[in-house]
Amino acid sequence: MKPRNLESNQPSLEEAAEVRMRMLTLLHKSQASHIGTCLSVIEILLAVYKNVDIEKIRDRTDDRDRVVVSKGHSAAALYTVLNHFGLLRDGELETYHQNNSLLGGHVTTTVSGVEHSTGALGHGLSVAVGIGIGLRNKKTSSRVYVIVGDGELHEGSNWEAIHSAAHLKLGNLCLLVDYNKLSGIGKTNDCCNLEPLKSKLESFGFETFEVNGHHQDEIYTTIQKTRDFERPVAIICHTIKGKGVSFMENNNVWHSRPLNKEDYEKAMLEIRDEK
Q1: What is the DSSP string of the chain?
Q2: Total of domains in the chain
Q3: Which residues of the chain fall short of a pLDDT of 50?
């Protein structure tokens, strides 16, 4: 599959809708779950992969940018976006969550283009910090992007990694938080309040920004303008779990419920109407 034309004038909303429909078809066919969290992260993934050199990732050159999706249960979203950019073949994508497939329900390095296996939440950011240290020691200009969920920030290991990255002034690290306000078991801030999240990250020493997590161009532009910062960057992306499907939005049942035929058809119709 050829990579997408990254200079295309295809509107961001239309592109995100296309990816959402492809992903929902994949999830319906496989009867897999984690639909809500996959829908919330689409624009973040699209913006990140438009900021990296796709060919270097394909060729796994030493100076490639690294993308670590720490919220590993959004595997269907990541794999669909990798396919969108030509890093995963159509035939391989179609095997998602099927017997004997390499594409399981959590992100894994058995899939080409994936830097780190995740799913045990709270580990990806620590690994990304280590990668960032290694890249800096090699004197490359490569950047490390790591996407975490807000519920995942309840894991203490993340805050140890944040503390270390800031202490080391790891300017090649870009942390993106999918802040959809829901964890797997309820409202994130009812479980353990993260607010004021921006102030907390700034107090650790991160250059911190807040954006609309469903505005792909805003995320892209923020990533672009922070390329040469001397300190690590955090971008808090305010998102909606289940984004794009009215009966899934902010409805945590879709963290674990698969799509039946009726709900699949309703969801696809809604997204088509929004294109």
Answers
A1: -PPP-TT----HHHHHHHHHHHHHHHHHHHT---HHHHHHTHHHHHHHHTSS-HHHHHHT-TT--EEEE-SGGGHHHHHHHHHHTTSS-HHHHTTTTSTT-S--SS--TTSTT--S---STT-HHHHHHHHHHHHHHTT----EEEEEETGGGGSHHHHHHHHHHHHTT-TTEEEEEEE-SB-SSSBHHHHS---SHHHHHHHHT-EEEEEETT-HHHHHHHHHHTTT-SS-EEEEEE--TTTT-TTTTT-GGGGTPPP-HHHHHHHHHHHHHH-
A2: 1
A3: 1-9
pLDDT, one tens digit per residue, over 46-55 is 999 999 999 9
pLDDT of residue 10: 56
What does each C-alpha distance from 223 to 7, 22, 73, 175, 176 come to in angstroms? 17, 26, 24, 10, 10
pLDDT for residue 120: 84
The verdict on residue 5 lying in a domain is no
pLDDT tens digits for range 202-226: 999 999 999 999 999 999 999 999 9
Q: How far apart are CA 181 and CA 159, in angstroms?
A: 18
Within-domain flag for 6: no
Q: CATH number, domain at 21?
A: 3.40.50.970
> Which structural domain range is residue 36 located in?
14-274
**Rounded to 5 degrees, what are φ and ψ at 45?**
-60, -45
